[in-house]
Amino acid sequence: MAILKVVGMTFTCRETIMLLFCIFISCLPFCSSVTRNDRPIIGVLAQEVRSPKPNQNSYIAASYVKFLESAGSRVVPVMINQTLEEYKTLFNSINGILYPGGAASLTSSGYARAAKIFYDLAIEANDRGDFFPVWGTCLGFEQLTVLTCGEKVLVNTNTSGVALHLEFTNETANSRLFRGFPPELMKELASEPLTENSHKWSLSMSTYNSNDELKNFYKVLSTNTDGKIKFVSTFEAHDYPFYGTQWHPEKNAFEWTKPYIPHSPSAIKTTFYTAEFFVNEARKNLHRFDSEEEEKGALIYNHSPVYTGGRGSFEQIYYF
Ligand SMILES: *[C@@H]1O[C@H](CO)[C@@H](O)[C@H](O)[C@H]1NC(C)=O
Ligand SMILES: *[C@@H]1O[C@H](CO)[C@@H](O)[C@H](O)[C@H]1NC(C)=O
Ligand SMILES: *[C@@H]1O[C@H](CO)[C@@H](O)[C@H](O)[C@H]1NC(C)=O
Fold first, then answer.
1. Is residue 63 pLDDT above 60, yes or no?
2. I want to staple 289 with a disulfide (CB 3.0 to 4.6 A). Which of 89, 93, 113, 313 is the partner?
3. Band of pLDDT at residue 15, cut at 50, 70 and 90
4. Where along the chain is the active site annotated (predicted)?
């Protein structure tokens, strides 16, 4: 019989295994807290307002902030028109970034410029093993296509105000994004109009299939059609934690301004499982602010959202 002698005590083989097992178990919470960041902070990109006023030059719709906060993240606004150095410092302080929907130019806005800087920094970081997730919603999804293939290859679709069910692809089951969704919710997403679309531009499947840069970078997880054109509605990158939805996961729970925004229990679950997924991705990143003071000064808590009275698309907006 194998025998282990430790500080004058003698253990049998079975006792040794039990001892090692106990050490392993007691180490687990410690080990996982080292590689998981339970205080994630995600940047949300601001964009130009259509008619600027004093103190209202750029904005973030509050629903994107609530979306991330609902899953346990704090939010930092990423202002437009900052220097490259400022963006680099911020990049190394936050754990992920979200490009919201809206109407900024995909090629010449402050939104597009900042999105490109963070995209390039994220590629570089992920390449050296510094996991940094990027999420694009609607305009943000479209911005990702421009950043990946270097040009605007979108086509016009009749999708500016409609809730749709998702047409899942054969890639969905093995996707990172949808893997943690409850099977029941996946069935509902595939059969009920739970995803709200507010876009005039889309990445058509035929463009995707003929564009090697997009095809090599992203796998398509769902498609939709406006009756004529089949377009990509959800994608994730093959080799990077980059995700995009042409639909709006944040609106179901947090926007009440349009009759076509779904608010059923399954629609609300769609908001939360999507947020939970992305915030969990951000928990894998260990960037942090240099000091607690810097962190406090950067958080969106320093700003107050304005109730817009349901005019336009958003209930509440942060103006900068
Ligand atoms: C950003 O810079 C552009 C070009 O210099 C300027 O027109 C715009 O007003 C600036 N916007 C904000 C929000 O600072
Ligand atoms: C656009 O889609 C809506 C349904 O979402 C439909 O009622 C309308 O007729 C369509 N318009 C065109 C020009 O196809
Ligand atoms: C999914 O289908 C496409 C087109 O039919 C095919 O090229 C691809 O290999 C399939 N992927 C998987 C994971 O089965």
1. yes
2. 93
3. low
4. 138 (nucleophile), 248, 248 (proton donor)
For residue 31, what pLDDT is reported? 45
Please report, for the chain, the start and end positions of each structural domain, with discontinuous segments joined by +: 41-319
* Residue with CA nearest ligand 1 atom 13: 57
Ligand 2 pocket: which of 159, 196, 226, 231 to mutate (most atoms within 8 A of CB): 226
Q: Which atom of ligand 3 approaches the CA of 169 most closely? A: 1
Instruction: Report the pLDDT value the prediction gives residue 35, as an integer from 0 to 100.
Output: 87
Cα of 82 vs its chain's centroid, Å: 22
pTM for this prediction = 0.89
Q: What is the CB neighbour count within 10 angstroms for residue 70? A: 16
Distances (CA, A) of 178 to 85, 163, 282, 302, 306: 35, 19, 16, 34, 33
How many Å lie between the centroid of ligand 3 and the Cα of residue 212?
Answer: 15
pLDDT above 80 for 8? no
| Residues present in the chain in total | 320
* CA–CA gap between residue 65 and residue 73 (Å, rounded): 9
pLDDT, average across residues 180-208: 98
Task: Give the number of C-alpha atoms closer than 13 A to the C-alpha of residue 50, restricted to the C-beta side.
Answer: 3
> Which ligand is located closest to the Cα atom of residue 228?
2
Q: Does residue 192's CB lie within 6 angstroms of at least one atom of ligand 3?
A: no
Does residue 196 come out as left (phi exceeding 0), alpha (psi in the -120 to 50 range) or beta?
beta
CA 86 – CA 101 distance, rounded (Å): 23
Nearest alpha carbon, ligand 1 atom 14: 81
Which residue in 282, 298, 296 sits closest to 39, CA to CA? 282
Residue nearest to atom 1 of ligand 2 (CA): 158
pLDDT digits (tens, 9 = 90+) for 136-192: 999 999 999 999 999 999 999 999 999 999 999 999 999 999 999 999 999 999 999
Single-letter amino acid, residue 214: L
248 is catalytic: yes
